[in-house]
Amino acid sequence: GTALAQGVKRGLMSNEAGQGTITMSAAASDAEHPCEQGVVQALGVFLDTMVVCTLSGFIVVMAHLWSADPAAWEGLKTQQLPLYLASITSLTPGSGADSLVTLLISVCYGLFAYTCIVGFIIFAEIAANRISRKRPFIYFVRILGALVFIPFGVLSVMAGLELGNLWYISDLGNIIIVYCNLPVLFVGAKYAFRATRHFKKKDGTPFTSDVVGITCDYWDEKAKQKG
Question: Which residues, 6+ apart, have CB-to-CB distance to 145 below 8 Å?
Answer without folding.
Answer: 120, 121, 124
